[in-house]
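I had to read the description of the data format several times before I understood it. In essence, backbone conformation is discretised, so a fold becomes a row of integers matching the chain in length. I therefore recommend that a typical entry be quoted early in the introduction. For illustration, here is how one protein appears when written out as sequence plus structure tokens.

***
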Amino acid sequence: METLRLDLHNHSRVSRDSKLSIDDMIAQAKARQLDGFALTDHDSIAGNAEALQKAEREDVLLIPGCEVSSREGHVLALFVTRPIKTGPLPQVLADIRDQDGIAVISHPLRKGGGVPRRVLEDHLDMIDGIEVYNPDNTPFGNRAGWRIARRHGKFQTGGSDTHFIQNMGHGVTVVRSQSRSLESVRAALAAGQTSAWGKHAPPCSCARCRVYYLLEPIGRSQRFQALPASEYVLRQANRMFGRLFFSAGRAMRW
């Protein structure tokens, strides 16, 4: 039996709100003494093939996946090999199951991107795990997720929700696995052999995350996307908020 430290929620530059390369993420995972991590870009698996090849060369476990933006909130789809379409939560969960993937509810109950409690509890039969530690979620949301997972027998995960390299490893899933392989990790997750650990994000990071997810529905609306240069506007807004809160964090020594 091996005890593995995995970060199960990370975004590369395939996601529009991250600039991280796979090489940087692998290097940071090793620096933070992680055994591996999941690549969970927003609604895309485009970076998984490259990540799997590079991680294997560096002896780092790479779990392929994505973070799907369902109508009711975000879901981590782990061990999937084909894109998952956005849409109603039941359809997203069914698509993940069709690929023999693992469905984990991201940052539950969070305002903006979090699945509400009632919706979550209505679909427990199709949910495999719950992210009970996310440094960008509120302590209340993390605690509520932990209680729901424990009450209903869902395995617990921790993930950094990495968009900036310094945040990687702030949320960790400890997996008790038979061996250091993707097959054993998958079996351990399904068997509930996990626990979650982490440290909370500084207020500046939390504030940036709140702004992003409050504006996200606007960016996804068809009316906005039909406007000229809508993608450029989104990227510029993300850079502006990122610089603002990062500068505030440095000034306040967070």
About this structure: The first strand starts at residue 2 and ends at 7. The chain has nine helices and nine strands. The beta strands are 2-7, 36-39, 61-69, 74-78, 102-105, 129-133, 155-158, 171-177, 194-198. Residues 101 and 200 are 28 Å apart (CA to CA).
